[in-house]
C-alpha cells in the first residue's frame, strides 16, 4: 500500500522574488515532491499544497487522507490560520507523520508540538554545511553518506531550543565553527515527527541527492504504523478489561 | 540561598463545596505549602496564589521572583487567562521549575508545554493506589518508600498521552488493575518540569507523608541551577566566538 | 525480502521437566516459531537454535545470516559460552535485531548490552498480568488490545534495573499490585533491542494471541533497516570528507 | 556535607614521556584535582589514585567512601584488572557518580556500562575545538561560556557509538569540520555518569578554566542524591507492601 504524502510550502519567496524562482522554478514543494517521486516511486502518492490554497490546502478531508505531511515555511508563518494549525496538530497526535523542514522550526505547528521557543542561532553567509550521522542504524540514515556536504547553506547553530529528542540522527557543522542538531525525531501522541534543517530558499539544497535520500527515508519512517486515532479521555468502569478485552 | 516556591491552586472546589473544604480547610494550596514548609524549612520561602487573585497572582514580577511553581487545577482550567499561561510558559522556558499536579494534566500550561493531548483514562471510585519507584537513584525519589500506598484515590490510567519523558520516576497501579506513569520529568528550554499524579480534591492525599516527601524533593530538583534566560534567536557574525568568548 | 528470524531457547526446562514439556511439547522456541510463522507468513524465514547445539547454534555464519534473534533463557544462563555472547553482542552492534524474552533479563547478553544489573522483583504465584500500552503509535503496539490480559503468569515487578529505554511501549500490573515496564526498546550500535517480559515456562503464555502479535510486530520493527556494520574506530586525514564523500 | 571525589588516572604518559610530564608535572590527575579544589573549595574532599597503586587505588573501602569518581585512561586500558572494573561498575550501579574523560571512552569500565563499542573517529592534529552548549539549563552547563574554545586538541568525531544519552549537554566542532557529542549523561542503576571529551595528554586542556568549570559542575551533579544501594533481586510475598510500607 503506497504512502500518501503531502508536501506543504508557503510558496511566498518563489512567487514574489525572481531570484528565488530561478532556483526553485516549480517552488520548493515542487522540488521536494520531484525528489520524493524519484526515490519512492510507486511506494508513495505525492501531492502538494500551499498557503494560498483554500484552507491552505489542509482541510479535514485532505489531512485524513495524508499519511505524512512535509512542512516548509519561513516569512509567512503568521499567515497560517490557527484553526488549520490545530487541525494539523490533531492529525499528528492521531498518527499522521510530520516532517518539518529548515525555517519551519519557527512555524506555528512545530512550536505547538514542541512546547519550547524553537529558537536558534543563524547567519546567512553561504557557508559549507557538513552533515554527520550520529545514529547510523536509524531508518532515516539508511544509505546516507557519512558525512555529506552541502556547499552553500544558511548557518543554523546551537543552542537550538527543542525538547530532548527521541533520536539524534544528524549533527551538522558549519564553516564558521557552529554545530546544530540538524536531524532529530520526536513522538507526539501516535504521530512521528522528524525535523531536518538542511534546506533553504536561497540555495538549491532540495536538489542535493543526499538531502533527497534523507527526506525519502523520513517519509517511510514517519508513515503511521497502525490505525489513526487521536488520544482521548476514557472513563472505564472497574474491570472493564475483564469483558471487553480492552478499549482503545 | 533559599528556594522561592509558589504554590498555585485554582481554589474553586474548596470555596464552593463544603465537603471538599472539610478535607482541605486551608485549600489544597494551603496543605501543600504546609507540607513543603515542614520538610524544607529554611531551604524554601513558600507563597501561595489562586485563580481569584489579580492576574491569578501570576504577574510578571511574581514569576520573576519564583524559582519553582506548583500547579493544581481541575474544573477551572478554561478560566485561566491565556496571557498568564503564555507568561508562565516563558518563565519555564527561561528556567523556572514547574511541578504539575494530578488534574493539572489538563491545564492549559501543561498541554502547551507538552504538545500532546495529555489525555488519560480515569475513574473516581476511591481505589487504592500503589506508587512504585522506577528510578531509585533519582533526586525526586530520595527517601521515598518502595512502594508507598495511597488508600483512596481517583484512578488515572494509561494511555497517558505525553511525550517520552526525560526520566520515568514513579509508576502506579490501582485496585482495578490500571497502571499510570505517575511521576515523570521533562525539560522545556532551561526549565525542569515534574508531573506527579497522586493528589485529588476528594481525598486527603496532600497530607500523605510520602506524597509530601516527593513534592519537597521535586522542589529541590526543579529549582534553576544557573541564571534565568529565555532561549532567544541570535544572529552572530562569523567567528564572533573568537573575540567574545561566547554570548549566552 | 523476507526477514531471517532465529528463535534461540536454552531448552532445558522442556527436556528435563515433564510438566514443562506438557505445556511446550515443541519447546518454548517451537511455540514462538509457530506463532511467528502464522502471523508473518512469507515475510519471515524462521529457524530455531538451542543451547545444546554446537556453539549453541550461534556460529558466525548463522548470526551473519540472521536479521532478528529472539532469546529465551532461564536456568542455564551461565552455561552460555562467553565467546558466543561476545559474538552475539557484536552482531547486535552491527545491526542485528535482538528480542529478549522474560527471564532473559538475566542472560549474559542482556546484561552486557544494558550495563546495569537487570535485577527486578519476582514472585511465582500464578497471578493475572494486565498488559497496558503506553505508546499506542509504536510499531510494536500495532493491533494490540488495550489492555490484554494474561490469566496466569509469574510476577515481575519494579524496580527493574535497566537504563532509560528509548521507548516505553508496555507497562504491566499484577494481581498483587506490582507494576513492571514489560515492553521497552533500546539501541546499541546499529542494533535495535526489544525486551518483553510476558512469557514463562510454567504458563502457556507463548500461545496467547496478543503475545504472539507483539512478538511478530517486534520482529518487523527490529529488523535492520540498512546494511550491517559494526561501529569501528576510524582515523581520517583532515578534510577527507572533501574527496571521499564520506567513509562509513 | 562535602562531596568525596576521587580522581583516577592511569598516569603512564606522565611517568614515561618527558614531553607529557612537562605539560602535566603533577600528572593529569594532579591538574584535575587542583582545578576541582579551586572551584569546589570546602564543598569537596579530593583524592587521587593511579594504576600503579595496589588494586589501582580502587579497593572496596575506597570506593565505598567515594561519591564521585573521575576516570582518565588511554594506553593502559587493558592493564586495569577486571575485578577492579567489576567493583567500580557495582559501585556506580549502587549510586557512585562517574565522570569519564576523553580517551576513557575506550576504558573497560565505560564500555561495560554502555554496552556499545564506544568507538569514534579521531585525528591528532592539534585542531581548535569549539564546545557548544546544547542544554543551557543543565546543572553541568552552569556558568559555562557559549561557546568556549580549546585552542589545540585531538579531534574526536562522529559516529560516536554510545547509547542514546539521557541529556545531550555539549557538542563540539573541530577545525577539520567534524562534530562530536562531547558532553553526555547516562544513568546506570542509581549512578549518574557524565562523559566529557575535551582533555588530552598532549595539550594542557585540564588547565582551561572552562573545562575546569564543567568538571566541577559535573562533580556536583553526579554526587549521589540518596543512600547507596546496588539494585538487587527481591522475592516479596503477595501484598508484602501492605505491612512493610515497602522495602528498598
TrEMBL record, chains A, B, C, D:
One of its GO terms (molecular function) is transferase activity. InterPro entries: Class_I_gatase-like, ThuA-like, Trehalose_catabolism_ThuA_prok. Keywords: Glutamine amidotransferase, Transferase. It comes from the Bacteria. The keyword Transferase applies. Residues 4-222 form the ThuA-like domain. Residues 225-248 are annotated as: Disordered. Pfam families: ThuA. This is Glutamine amidotransferase. It comes from Brachybacterium phenoliresistens. The lineage of its organism: Bacteria, Bacillati, Actinomycetota, Actinomycetes, Micrococcales.
Amino acid at each position: 500500500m503506497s504512502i500518501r504524502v503531502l508536501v506543504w510550502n508557503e510558496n511566498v519567496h518563489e512567487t514574489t522574488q525572481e531570484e528565488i524562482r530561478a532556483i526553485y522554478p516549480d517552488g520548493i514543494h515542487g522540488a521536494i515532491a520531484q525528489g520524493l517521486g524519484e526515490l519512492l516511486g510507486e511506494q508513495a502518492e505525492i501531492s502538494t499544497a500551499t498557503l494560498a490554497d483554500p484552507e491552505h490546502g489542509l482541510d479535514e478531508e485532505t489531512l485524513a487522507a495524508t499519511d505524512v505531511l512535509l512542512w516548509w515555511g519561513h516569512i509567512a508563518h503568521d499567515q497560517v490560520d490557527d484553526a488549520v494549525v490545530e487541525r494539523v496538530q490533531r492529525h499528528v497526535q492521531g498518527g499522521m507523520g510530520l516532517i518539518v523542514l529548515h525555517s519551519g522550526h519557527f512555524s506555528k505547528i512545530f512550536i505547538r508540538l514542541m512546547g519550547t521557543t524553537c529558537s536558534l542561532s543563524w547567519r546567512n553567509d553561504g557557508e559549507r554545511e557538513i552533515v554527520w550521522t550520529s545514529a547510523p542504524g536509524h531508518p532515516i540514515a539508511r544509505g546516507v553518506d557519512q558525512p555529506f556536504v552541502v556547499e552553500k547553506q544558511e548557518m543554523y547553530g546551537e543552542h537550538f531550543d527543542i525538547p530532548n529528542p527521541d533520536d539524534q540522527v544528524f549533527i551538522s557543522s558549519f564553516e564558521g565553527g557552529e554545530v546544530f542538531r540538524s536531524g532529530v525525531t520526536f513522538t507526539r501522541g501516535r504521530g512521528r515527527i522528524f525535523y531536518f534543517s538542511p534546506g533553504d530558499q536561497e540555495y538549491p539544497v532540495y536538489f542535493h541527492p543526499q538531502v533527497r535520500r534523507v527526506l525519502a527515508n523520513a517519509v517511510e519512517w514517519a508513515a503511521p504504523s497502525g490505525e489513526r486515532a487521536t488520544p482521548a479521555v476514557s472513563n472505564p468502569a472497574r474491570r472493564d478489561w475483564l469483558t471487553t478485552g480492552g478499549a482503545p
